[in-house]
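Closing statement on the zinc ion sub-project.
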Amino acid sequence: MDEAQLDRIKRLPKVELHLHHEGAAPPHFIKGLAQEKSVNLEGVFAPDGGYAFRDFVHFLSVYEAATSVLKTPEDYARLTKAVLEESAANDVVYCETFLSPDFCGGGDVGAWREYLAAIREAADAAERDHGIILRGIVTCIRHFGPDKAKASALCAAETAGDWIVGFGIAGDEMKGKPKDFAYSFDMAREAGLRLTAHAGEWGGAQSVADAITDLGVERIGHGVHAINDLALVDKIVENEIVLEVCPGSNVVLDVYPNLAAHPIEKLRERGVKVTVSTDDPPFFHTTMRDEYLNLARTFGWDADVFAEINTTAANAAFCDEDTRARVLKRLERT
Ligand code: MCF
Ligand code: ZN
């Protein structure tokens, strides 16, 4: 692929469906807040200035340590501004971000409303300044257990609407089973929220099947291990379940040794609706532009393939139809 083609791919307008709000925090932003608040973040940063972690479980604890400096709604407003500036610089036109009431008010509905108001205000400003549209997915954290998940689901249900558009689950997939969280997903569904779950990243194909059956999700975060069960892949295709694939994340966390070994292309070839996201970009030394360039170089994907992926993502977005129409219009202008 020549440089002109790669340059065009890099600059395409993009839709990102899988981004963790704190996980997108630039390290210098977290360092600055730690200094302001005199919080000791020893061990969180690598000598190169990025985040330091050995493996997935260590990643989860470093994520929580970095998040500990975000203490107020105002901190989250500043975070939102920093995150959206970076996303807009990568030509992202629409993004869905995972927000956790555990970190934003400790599961209390009143406190959560204050965090949410601050985040929305910053998102509205970023939309005015950079044209990027943000929507939120309330996310429970699997290793915090089903009780905390219920508190998150209540926060989600109380604030469901045109901005909080979905409910999901992230965290340590090796802890508990999807059905332990079915009550929370039922509450969110009844409140009109759309559903997604991290599954099949560390768990096998069965973990993806359980999330679909027991939680009734229409999207799966990662889902890559579905490739080990082709009958499940067929079911995913038939039911038009969309995968939020984060290739760079999977390589850095050692789910796959390199991008060439990643199943995204096999899944796409079999007809699965795949989308592309960064997950926690500075943690994984990636950006949306990098993800696209790496996929183009590794699998030979041209601009048409990426255009199709972005249309898939826009159609799978949890936003209202007016917003979707605006996003699809932005994708046309290439
Ligand atoms: O997708 C990656 C890796 N797999 C699972 N979970 C997470 C990922 N990035 C963040 N998370 C979790 C983590 O537990 O999501 C939470 C973090 O605390 C934040 S959700 C706003
Ligand atoms: Zn994730």
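The two ends are 19 Å apart (CA to CA). With this model delivered, the sub-project is considered complete and its resources will be redirected to Aim 3.
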